[in-house]
């Protein structure tokens, strides 16, 4: 035991010596800083970090391990003493069998004590070695960044236009810079695209960021008034002036009211711009980003490529910029997984993310942060915010009187920079629009669109366009009847005329309007003229026996009108025939398209109307397309006989769900409003898509 105590005392002496040496080194550094004319109490950004690295943590490491070692030895030596006493007793009594059982435990405890001493000695030696060099390297890096920041503060603010067009011939003055943009775009098309942008100035000259090499994703932090929005605006404008819309696109999500990105929405590169004043539109934008991610994944899988740059030609690189990310996180937390997926997969898919926030601690998930290589920090108040993003508290020392001053860290060290100011942002956007028009670059197709309009706004053009022509698919006509909303974009809703279709809803909501629109367009198709003309249907695989019949109710009875009969039909051909009473209705035949308005009486199993038997026969025929309208879902009796249904909401939740409308479609964004005439849902193949039918007066005028 005396030997153990001696070894313990010898082991504790170097530990205490190390603590004294570290303390002495701290005092020496303090004195050295005063001799250099840099009092420690003035260096707020660095004094806290240095004290934690060299002072108190060092003292804890010297005192902590020795105390821990002593306590560990006490807990291990206590049973060792008891076992030693028992050993002496067993030897005196000659209990050799019990002695053999005791010896392994005794040797095990003794070896454990020795191992504890060796580990404590190794830990103290390694800690003393790590104390010096890394801290000095961190101090050298911070001092260099601080010196660069001081030099940038003394410089006059730079203008972005001067930096972008200084080396471009024929740049001209104000109003003529579109020529320089054209020159830059055409030059960039001659080789592989470069996504390097001049955003400001640094100590060595222009401050350049390469979106692909330095990123691909960036996290921008800064308190209010630090210049975050100006930085993002300068970055986007610099990229737009360097790359044409065919190689670079922008999605702008502004969650502070839209004040920062309103001007950039006019760029020909911008495929979407929303703000937090319209959360429904913000949801559509995030759904559009997810859909674009899946589309690009499918493109790579189709050709077996691993990177979007392997495609010929590759789609334009898409930059998603989010201002005030913490507001998005608070208001739309369910969509953060889509952004995390973008951060993890965007590099190979040509999609980049720039998230801007006032503070990073607790706002960006670890999964997203792990994929964001580029950190940009403007002025922050908390040194921990700067350390989390840059590994240094230097951004907390930026003066509030110098907005736009910040630090950039891309894994190769911290660089100080100052953002260039834009002389005339609106004018630069107009110059870019002129350049795109001169080069023939059409504006990039939108990534998402506003939700469905009502009938009062159908005269305005919406993204996606539309055509009035009836098209043919798999031998069946597709008739345009209105707009359909897939949750991201608006498309022309083309109703396939195949199988049986039911129009369900109260009177006055648009069922008769759809029947009339179908009849006009199909008649124009059959006659080969008019706005709905398309190639003859027998050329597209349709049966030669083709006809169009319309039945409607008049005074409690039904009349049928055969408007056109195909050339090879067994019935007499002709452009039209007068309406005939229900008793003279012809039997349905293959290739017939039959439109019936107010058909609820014909579907009644107790009905004695002569046309009832023909309708029931047509419902069971595969080559007859029957389109009928009813006032309630109970009238169709057997819903499985109808391949698709257009349901106009009743405004009563139970009745709407009885018609087949999903609960989510009645409560989620873009839900159908019963007060809007022509608003319905298309139920087909497990989908429920909102549709706004064209007005009844003239669908051709809706463009």
Mean pLDDT: 77
Class of the largest domain in CATH? Alpha Beta
> What's the domain count?
3
Shape: flat
CATH H-level homologous superfamily name of the largest domain: P-loop containing nucleotide triphosphate hydrolases
CATH topology of the largest domain: Rossmann fold
Largest sheet: 12 strands, mixed
- CATH architecture identity of the largest domain: 3-Layer(aba) Sandwich
Number of helices: 17
Bin the helical content.
40-55%
Please compute the radius of gyration using only Cα atoms.
38 Å
Strand % is 15-25%
Structural class: alpha/beta
Give the uncertain stretches in residue-range form. 1-64, 127-139, 459-466, 530-545, 567-584, 697-703
Number of strands: 22
Cα separation of the termini: 98 Å
In short, what is this structure?
This protein is α/β, with parallel strands linked by helices and 703 residues long. The protein has 3 domains: 2-131; 152-439, 3-Layer(aba) Sandwich (Rossmann fold), CATH 3.40.50; 458-701, Rossmann fold (3-Layer(aba) Sandwich), CATH 3.40.50.
How would you sum up this structure, described in words?
The chain has 17 helices and 22 strands. The model is unreliable at 1-64, 127-139, 459-466, 530-545, 567-584 and 697-703 (pLDDT under 50). Strands 11, 12, 13, 14, 15, 16, 17, 18, 19, 20, 21 and 22 form a twelve-stranded mixed β-sheet that branches. Strands 2-1-10-9-8-3-7-6-4-5 form a ten-stranded mixed β-sheet. The chain has three domains: 2-131; 152-439, 3-Layer(aba) Sandwich (Rossmann fold), CATH 3.40.50.300; 458-701, Rossmann fold, CATH 3.40.50. The longest helix is centred in the first third of the chain and has 50 residues, at 44-93. By secondary structure, the chain is of the alpha/beta class.
